[in-house]
Amino acid sequence: MNPRVAIPAAIAVLAVIAAFLLGGAFAVEREPSLDRVLQTLQSREYVDLTHAFGPGIPRWPGFPDENRTTLYDYRPGNGTLGSGFFAQSFTHVGQWGTHMDPPAHFVEGLRTVDQIGLHEMILPLVVLDIHEQAARNPDYTVTLADVREWESRHGPVPNGSFVALRSDWSKRWPDGSAMENRGQDGISHYPGWSGEVLRYLYEERGITASGHETTDTDPGTAASRDDFSLELYLLSTNHYQIELLANLDRVPEAGALVVVSVPKPEGGSGFPARVFAILP
Question: Is the pTM of this model over 0.70?
């Protein structure tokens, strides 16, 4: 089923999801019931692609640590904090843990977190696997040849998809030093995207969003020089990205769906996200 074909009424998005998961089983049923769609979704395996966040987690060096305070606890209400319920205050930058970078993060006037459309949050998932290359060379950047190899196995990268770069760098979490992987010269060495691949995916294949396991779009050697030109390019296309993804080794290269759930801060420059995959 073509996810761009409009299906009447409010079941459109869920019907596309169900058809995708069932491999066309709904082709003869124009409008499957929501109950059947829900049963299909609940029968599938889900994989959490999100790190839990808290004080001390890996982050861009320019960001302060999270401050978390207990405002009320479960003690009786006559105590200093007691109230009979548990409530905390969280203070952290928007780019914290597994998070969404909206276009406005780098480009003034483009979309903020609250302006990302709901239809951009449930997408076909493409996984470009470079973990073996990154194990041999931590400075590895994905190449167009890597993408062509993926397409030789699965067909063209789908229009409107979410492309995740698997490097297995998330296995270093939550060790900040291991994530940064600095050499004696102070330069970080971790894998990243390349300009040729990002341009191909966004300009020729028309993808909706992308993500990766490292703290930056750009490889560590560039980020160490404060060169974030690839992130600037990506966000300037008015698309969003997800940083610090996890568990990409548990999802297939093709055939899964990704769901990106994020709060809605008005004018938000970024925010922690809950991202998960639904397996085929």
Answer: yes
